[in-house]
Write a structure and sequence with these properties.
Structural class: mainly beta
Helix content: 10-25%
Strand content: 35-45%
Strand order of the largest sheet: 1-9-8-3-4-5
Number of domains: 6
Number of helices: 8
Distance between the termini: 177 Å
Bound molecules: 2-acetamido-2-deoxy-beta-D-glucopyranose
Number of strands: 55
């Protein structure tokens, strides 16, 4: 047995030597012609070198297999199948290191036969040759180039800007939904390495982006839309030259910023009251870093609101303390979540808010109502409200008084409408409405209704008695009320023969007043009538003027003496009596009745009731007089009477024993009249002679007085066209009640000034005409009494 084995070994060795002799000769030829199959080996792992042992001829059998390495003539491994089937063949490896780790595997398909080398190392690299000998077929040779794998360098990661991401540092930040770019690169590696991006066990990118020739291998990862779940995760770049050699891996933690993905106003959308502030809560989540919440109302940031915020890693809550006003009703409230690190990373929740507020209110004339408002028409006013909730009740007011519903009077307030039927003059005024809802009650601003009406006689001027002097021109004033202003006046007069229009007479129309200067054509003219018209219509009832013979005026009444308010004199005031149908003026006469300084018991004429001659006179358009020139210590007597063109009132009102006790600076009146009349009184000191002089003086004075009055009357009757006009105008420059005149000046002077004065009134006091005319001689109107009883 031993010998058998030995013998075979020797024989094999011989055979090998023979083979070698043959083979060694043609080694170079093999290397040129035979293709070498490349096999990559991983150090420390096994390598398998393929060798196809399928015979060229069917039924043929393998006899010998030899493995050679590089240029060595000696096989490192052999297999002898000459004695039987190949699976029973004897394997022989050279006793060196490589041979001892090799084994030829023949199991399975002959084409899959291979030499397995265990635990290869760098020295095993080289070109191996497999020689297969057959029984009948020609010998075949295969060449295998075993090269060891070289792993590339460790991967390096770069961002889009080309900056390297250091180990254990995160990449990013990347924005959710935006592109993410990372580049992984390795150097070297044999064979050319593969480079893959991995995430959670799956390959993201396996495409090599570098050129084949390059020493550096690059894989650029591009994610078009960065998904949310990449936040707080890592991705991995794996490099390998051969899968069998394992991977060289590099993990990169990612920083990904997230948009807020949820924002919600969580407070229920209830009706907000305008009067108080209310809390509204908004929450957001999903943002990284945490979102900031802002509030907008109607597109504008709410600045002065109180906001409470809470914040966790991805959650933000905000409580807005909102104060709304009525105008905010229907506006849009927006809660907006902004990721401060994420441009455009915002989300919003919006809602329309509903504000409860007290009514806002305005009175308007219904468009269907005609404006301007005319007497006799119907109008409707509307109470325009804006309120939430809608008002439950309305009220209407005229001049601040509640308007009751009165169908008979045609006053119909109905909720937000007020209808006034058949408008009258007194329907004019300030109208207002009020409306109430749960939030309160509001009153509107007053709304002025002006009513236009046809002219009518001014109150107290419906029927006027006009005193007429024979052959005198009458001046008659027709006063009407009208809105708008009068456009036309017309006059008629009637006699026993009928009613005739006034023609050719002079009229002056000043606004609401028409002044007619009329000379009656005959004695039987009974009345004048005046009609005015305006845009609304013609006056229905005329103003009437009954022409009666003129009379002397009535005496003034209720005369009083009192100190002036400044304490610098005395004031005498009376109430005017009837003017007798003509213009009246008033005269006050002052007489010095100081008892002469003589032994007591002696009496004077003045004590016996005879009026002493007046010291001076004061003339006035009104029965109101101020006396500044009286001397303290003296006693005076004051007489007041009225006069018109027909004559003077009789008897005069006499106020005896008027004294001044004030300390006002004494002011002598430098008039001739005074000195004239002083002389007799100062001289009358002792005797009856004096008394006689006084009587004579008084008589002369009385005669002079009567004469002057007669002259005055005559002058007035002849010259003055305005005698009948009853008017007064207080002119600030020359108040007529303070005229102080000498007796001489009283006649011509007074009347000249008086007529000038009146003429100026006609020209300049148009707007005050109604005020100027006081106390006309009214017959029928009850108002006339009150207008006469003005207190002074
Ligand atoms: C090959 O081997 C088989 C069985 O071992 C044998 O039957 C056959 O004859 C052999 N062929 C040749 C050509 O030797
Ligand atoms: C074996 O293959 C490697 C890799 O392709 C090559 O670099 C080497 O030159 C080859 N060796 C021979 C002897 O052909
Ligand atoms: C990773 O993949 C597994 C299985 O596909 C999955 O269940 C898991 O949720 C993934 N994890 C992440 C963070 O995506
Ligand atoms: C309604 O108006 C008429 C006419 O103005 C008046 O006489 C009557 O008193 C009013 N009724 C009420 C209830 O005020
Ligand atoms: C003139 O008119 C007045 C007022 O209308 C009237 O009272 C008077 O009787 C009339 N006189 C004549 C004569 O018609
Ligand atoms: C006319 O009378 C009306 C009503 O009294 C008044 O409103 C208006 O101002 C007067 N017009 C003139 C010009 O005086
Ligand atoms: C005027 O005032 C004086 C004192 O200042 C007083 O004594 C006198 O009675 C008053 N006269 C009248 C009329 O009021």
């Amino acid at each position: 047995m031993h010998w058998g084995i030995f013998g075979r070994g020797v024989c094999l060795l011989v055979t090998l030597l023979c083979v070698c002799k043959v083979d060694c000769l043609d080694t170079k030829e093999f290397q040129k012609t035979l293709p070498a199959k490349l096999v990559w080996g991983v150090p420390g792992k096994n390598a398998e070198l393929p060798c196809d042992i399928t015979p060229a001829l069917p039924g043929d059998n393998v006899t010998m297999i030899f493995w050679f390495k590089d240029n060595l003539g000696m096989p490192l491994y052999s297999l002898d199948a000459r004695d039987g089937p190949i699976d029973k063949a004897s394997h022989l490896a050279m006793s060196d290191d490589l041979g001892s780790r090799s084994y030829f595997i023949t199991e399975g398909e002959p084409s899959q036969a291979r030499l397995s080398i265990q635990n290869i190392n760098v020295h095993d690299q080289g070109v191996f040759r497999c020689r297969v000998d057959f029984v009948n077929s020609p010998t075949r040779n295969f060449q295998v180039n075993l090269t060891l794998v070289a792993q590339p360098s460790a991967p390096r990661i770069f961002d889009a800007e080309g900056r390297e991401i250091r180990v254990n540092h995160p990449a990013g930040p990347f924005l959710e939904g935006h592109a993410m770019f990372l580049s992984c690169q390795v150097d070297g590696g044999r064979p050319r390495p593969t480079l893959n991006w991995w995430y959670n066990g799956t390959i993201l990118d396996s495409v090599i982006d570098s050129s084949r020739a390059s020493h550096t291998t690059v894989n650029q990862l591009v994610i078009a839309h960065t998904p949310r779940h990449l936040r707080k995760s890592r991705i991995e770049c794996r490099a390998t030259s051969s899968e069998g050699a394992g991977y060289i891996s590099r993990e990169v933690p990612l920083t990904v910023f997230l948009k807020p993905n949820k924002v919600k106003i969580v407070t229920p959308n209830t009706l907000l009251s305008a009067s108080k502030s209310q809390n509204i809560r908004c929450e957001t989540s999903g943002s990284h870093p945490p979102a900031k919440l802002t509030w907008l109302l109607d597109g504008r940031a709410i600045r002065d609101a109180v906001v409470t915020e809470e914040e966790t890693e991805t959650f933000t809550g905000s409580i807005l303390s909102l104060n709304v006003v009525a105008e905010d009703d229907g506006k849009e409230l927006v809660c907006r979540a902004d990721n401060p690190r994420f441009p455009g990373g915002n989300a919003e929740d919006r809602r329309q808010i509903h504000v409860a507020y007290p009514p806002k209110i305005l009175v308007q004339l219904d468009p269907a109502s005609k404006s301007p408002v005319k007497e006799g028409t119907d109008i409707t006013m509307q109470c325009k409200t804006s309120a939430n909730p809608l008002p439950d009740s309305y009220s209407w007011y005229q001049n601040s008084h509640l308007i009751p519903y009165n169908a008979t009077a045609g006053i119909l307030p109905e909720d937000s409408k007020l209808t006034l039927k058949n408008i009258e003059q007194n329907s004019a005024g300030q109208y207002a409405c009020s409306a109430m809802n749960s939030e309160g009650e509001t009153y509107s601003a007053p709304f002025e209704i002006q009513v236009q009406y046809a002219p009518r006689c001014k109150r107290g001027y419906e029927m006027v008695r006009v005193g007429a002097l024979p052959f005198e021109t009458l001046s008659v004033q027709c006063h009407v009320d009208a809105v708008p202003d009068v456009t036309r006046f017309s006059w008629t007069y009637n006699t026993t023969r009928g009613v005739l229009p006034v023609q050719g007479a002079k009229t002056e129309n000043l606004g609401n007043v028409s002044i007619l200067h009329f000379t009656p054509p005959s004695r039987d003219v009974e009345a004048l009538a005046c009609w005015a018209s305006n845009s609304v219509g013609r006056q229905r009832d005329p103003c009437l003027f009954f022409i009666v013979p003129a009379e002397t005026p009535e005496s003034p009444r209720s005369c009083l003496v009192r100190n002036t308010s400044h304490g610098d004199g005395l004031e005498v005031s009376c109430i005017a009596g009837k003017d007798g149908g003509l213009h009246q003026s008033f005269v006050l006469e002052v007489s010095d009745v100081t008892p002469p300084s003589k032994p007591p018991g002696v009496t004077t004429l003045s004590d016996q009731g005879v009026l002493p001659p007046p010291k001076y006179r004061v003339l006035g358009e009104r029965p109101l007089f101020r006396l500044h020139s009286l001397q303290p210590g003296k006693e005076y007597q004051v007489a007041v009477y009225a006069e018109n063109a027909k004559g003077k009132s009789d008897p005069p009102v006499v106020l005896p024993h008027v004294r001044v006790e004030y300390d006002a600076p004494y002011e002598e009146i430098p008039t001739e009249e005074e000195s004239t009349h002083k002389q007799p009184s100062s001289d009358s000191s002792t005797s009856n002679k004096n008394l006689t002089w006084i009587i004579i003086g008084a008589s002369v004075a009385a005669v002079l007085l009567i004469m002057s009055i007669v002259i005055v009357a005559a002058v007035l009757a002849c010259k003055r066209p305005t005698t009948v006009v009853k008017r007064r105008c207080r002119r600030s420059s020359k108040p007529p009640d303070e005229f102080e005149l000498s007796e001489d000046g009283f006649g011509e002077g007074f009347h000249r000034r008086s007529t000038q004065y009146r003429a100026s009134m006609y020209g300049e006091c148009e707007d005050r005409i109604t005020r100027m005319i006081e106390g006309p001689d009214l017959i029928l109107s009850p108002m006339s009494t009150s207008e006469h009883s003005l207190e002074f």
